[in-house]
TrEMBL record:
It comes from Amorphus orientalis. PROSITE patterns: GST_CTER, GST_NTER. This is GST-like protein. The keyword Oxidoreductase applies. One of its GO terms (molecular function) is oxidoreductase activity. The keyword Oxidoreductase applies. Keywords: Oxidoreductase. Residues 108-234 form the GST C-terminal domain. InterPro entries: Glutathione-S-Trfase_C-like (IPR010987), Glutathione-S-Trfase_C_sf (IPR036282), Glutathione_S-Trfase (IPR040079), Glutathione_S-Trfase_N (IPR004045), GST_C (IPR004046), Thioredoxin-like_sf (IPR036249). CDD domains: GST_C_Ure2p_like (cd03178), GST_N_Ure2p_like (cd03048). SUPFAM superfamilies: GST C-terminal domain-like, Thioredoxin-like.
Amino acid sequence: MTDLSAFPIAKRWPAQHPDRLQLYSFPTPNGVKVSIALEETGLPYEAHKVDITNDETWTDDFLALNPNGKIPAIIDPDGPGGQPFGLFESGAILVYLADKTGKLVPTDPALRYETIQWVFFQMGHIGPMFGQLGFFYKFAGKDIEDKRPLERYANETKRLLGVLETRLDGREWIMGDTYSIADISMMGWVRGLVQFYEAGDLVGYGDLKNVPAWLDRCLTRPAVERGLQIPPRG
C-alpha cells in the first residue's frame, strides 16, 4: 500500500484509497477543471472536499502542499519515477494529467503548445478577470460607491469573450475538432459568469453565438456533468 504519510494534508484528509490519485478541491471554476479532467481521462482518484467557505485552505496541513492556500491540489501516488508527487495550480495539474494519461492534449508538438497556450490564456486572463467581475458585481465589491472597478472588469470580460468568440468561429472546440484541456480550463469560468455571477446581460453574453454554443456542447458531456459536482458541496 502506498504511504502518503510524508504529506501533512493526508493526515487532515485521510485517504481511503491511497493507491489512487488524491484530489483536494471544492466545486469552483478552478476546482472543477481537475475533477472534469479526471472524469474525462478515467484515471482512478479519490476526492476530498476542502471547504473554502470555512477557510480550510489556510490550515497548516493544506499549506504544506500549496503554500498559496488555493484549491485544487493533488497528490499522485504514482508520480514521476513512481514516487508520490504533490502538485498545485489548476493549469499545471491539467497539463500533468494530460501528459500522464496521453489524453486531452494533441501529440503533435506544435498543437500541444498551442493547446497549452490557451490554458495559459485562461489562467492569466479569463480566471482573474471574470473573478474580479464577480466580486464587484455580485459580492462585497458591489457595495463600493465608485463603479469604475466594475466597469473596468466588465469591459475586459467583454473583450475576453470576444477573443473566445473569434477563436470558436468555425470550430467545435478551442483546438478545432479536438476537445482538450483548453476547453476544460475555460468552461467552468464561462458557466460561472452567466449562471453563478448572473452577469450575462452585463457583458453582452446574449449577443454571442459561438461561445454559448460551445458551452452547451461542453456541459452535455457526461464527464463534465459528473465533474461539476465533485467533490459535493454538501
